[in-house]
Each structure stands twice: as C-alpha cells, then as structure tokens.
Specification:
This protein is an alpha/beta fold and 326 residues long. The chain is 58% helix and 11% strand. The chain has twelve helices and nine strands. The chain has a five-stranded parallel β-sheet, with helices on both faces. Strands 1-2 form a two-stranded antiparallel sheet. Helix 2 packs antiparallel against helix 3 (65-86), helix 5 packs parallel to helix 6 and helix 7 packs across helix 8 (237-248).
C-alpha cells in the first residue's frame, strides 16, 4: 500500500525537522569557529570577494580569470584548513552534517525513496500497528510446536493438534507470501489460549516488514472508536483519521470478537467495517472464542454470511498454552 497523505506528511515532517536541526547545528559550529578563530571569517570574506571580482572580469572578457580564481580559492582553503587543524578542528567542521549522507536528509535519491525513508516507513507502520512492542516477542521466529499435543488424535480433524498446527503454520506463511497480490481474510476460532492472537501477531510482523500497513484492535477498542466517531460531533481529528485508517489499512486485525457488549449499533458497525473492507479489497483477520454457529447467533445473518463466504475459517484446538508455559 502506498502511504496515505497523513502518513507521508508525518514522515516528511521528520525530514524537515532534521534539515532545520542540521542548519542550526552548522550555524552554531560556524559561530564557535568565528569566535575562536576570527581569521577564518576574514578568509571566507576574501573567498567571496575573489568570486565577485572573477565574475566581473569574466564579463569583461578575461578568459584567464576563472583559472586565477581557482588557484586563489585553493590557496585560501588551504590556509583555512591549516587554521582549523591548529585549533583542533577537522577540515569539514564547518560543513553541513546529515543523518543520511546518501539523500542529504531529503528522503529521496534520484527521485526514488532513499533507504532511510523506507526505514522511517517501517518505523511509522510499527508505531501505528498498535502492537509494536509485542511483535518483538510474538513472531514466526518465536513460534514453537512444543506446547501442542502430538499423541491424541482429534476426531474433527483426524490428526493430532501438533500435526494440525503445522498445517495452520504453513497456511499463515502462504497467506503472508500471497498478501501483496491477493490479500485475503482469515478468521481464527477456538477457546482461550490456543494461539489465535499469537498467529495474528506473527502475520502482522511479517507484513509490516514488507511495508504493508497493519492495525491491531481488540473488539472493544474497535467499537469504541466507531462510537466516538459517530456520536461525538467534536471528535478530535486524530480519532477521525483513525476511523478512516481502520477502513483503509492493508490489514485490520480484530482480536477477541464477541467479548464486546453487543447491541444493534455494534452489529451494524461490524457489518459496515467488514463489508467496506471487502469492497476496498483490504485484508482482515478476526480472532474469536465463538464458534461459527455462535457467531451467527450473536450477530446478524448478513455478517455471518459475509464471513462464511469471504473468509478462510481456521479453527484452533488444544489446551490453554498460557497455562502450560507457567
């Protein structure tokens, strides 16, 4: 996904601030040198005077003026370097310094995004994901099958939970690999602690690292944002931006659907969110403790119909992994 205007502007503000800071720090270094070595200012004034005089001579037809200026400026630069060194300064101490020498803190090199800009993109996407810290712990690298039973065959799936989770793991990897071109929607169902949220976090980290925008919200937080956006006419601009971001981000994760206080407003907003993101071809992942039958009973037929027809339903089995880890 290309950055939204607000995301792009947020990154460019960082570069603008860097440029102002760079100029401020350079001015301070120059003031310091002028204070300690007044001769430096005199040398720079001489350079400027020589350049102006050369321009006049060139206009008068003196073709040798350019070479004479080059020689004079070289001599003055050498004098400046000697003075700086004598006072313990590097030759480039008075020059502009950049965070990124490649783009000189503009964010672009030859009209293309610099590597540092792409790093800022990822930093922003992580910050806006709402789960930046936890993704350092819950990701595919940290995923393990050791907490899933590999002895008892589950009748519903005809295999052990451990073998089944290896399939689920592979499906999640495939989802990530095909996301940029195909998108897609998933719903993880199952009891508390079977790994639903962990898997969504694994997917989230992989996609953010591939410059996809991801936002994680518990169902309670999601509907709180919808409520404030609809009923609070003085809602802050950030809240309105968040509402639009929920509809536009590449991947929306709705965690623990079914734990919120359900009413007609919640059902209508959930349908709107799911349907709108389908129309916009944006991916959504839902995790819930509810079975599909319970989901149908809790929400409207329209919602369950959209999920059944447009989502890959992945039930998870087993005991509470959090308890096993203690």
């Amino acid at each position: 996904m290309s950055l939204s205007n607000s995301q792009y502007n947020a990154i460019m503000r960082i570069y603008n601030q860097r440029q102002f800071q760079n100029k401020y720090e350079q001015d301070e270094r120059i003031k310091e040198v002028y204070r300690r070595i007044p001769q430096i200012r005199q040398l720079e004034d001489a350079m400027s005077s020589q350049a102006v005089a050369c321009a006049r001579r060139l206009l008068d037809g003196d073709e040798r003026a350019r070479q004479r200026l080059k020689d004079q400026l070289e001599d003055l630069r050498e004098q400046k370097a000697v003075l700086l060194s004598a006072y313990g300064y590097e030759p480039d101490y008075m020059e502009m310094r950049y965070h990124c020498a490649e783009c000189q803190d503009t964010g672009y090199v030859d009209g293309k995004k610099c590597r540092c800009f792409k790093k800022e993109e990822i930093t922003l996407l992580y910050a806006q994901s709402n789960i930046q810290e936890i993704l350092g712990r819950e990701n595919f690298s940290a995923f393990t099958f050791q907490y899933y039973d590999n002895r008892e065959v589950i009748p519903q799936i005809g295999m052990t939970v451990a073998d089944y989770m290896k399939q689920v793991y592979a499906w999640c990897r495939e989802y990530v690999e095909g996301f940029a071109s195909k998108g897609g929607n998933l719903i993880f169902t199952g009891s508390t602690g079977v790994g639903k949220t962990f898997l969504t976090n694994c997917i989230a980290k992989e996609l953010i690292d591939r410059y996809q925008s991801v936002i994680y919200l518990s169902s309670n937080d999601l509907f709180d944002i919808f409520s404030k956006n609809k009923f609070h006419h003085d809602a802050e601009e950030d809240m309105q931006d968040m509402y639009q971001y929920i509809l536009d981000c590449d991947l929306l994760i709705i965690d623990d659907l079914g734990t919120e206080l359900n009413n007609s407003f919640v059902s209508s907003q959930l349908f709107y969110c799911i349907n709108e993101r389908l129309i916009r071809k944006k991916g959504t992942i839902i995790s819930t403790n509810l079975s599909m039958d319970m989901l149908r009973d809790t929400y409207s037929d329209r919602i369950s119909s959209r999920i059944i027809s447009q989502y890959s339903i992945i039930p998870l089995y087993g005991g509470d992994i959090r308890t096993k880890k203690r």
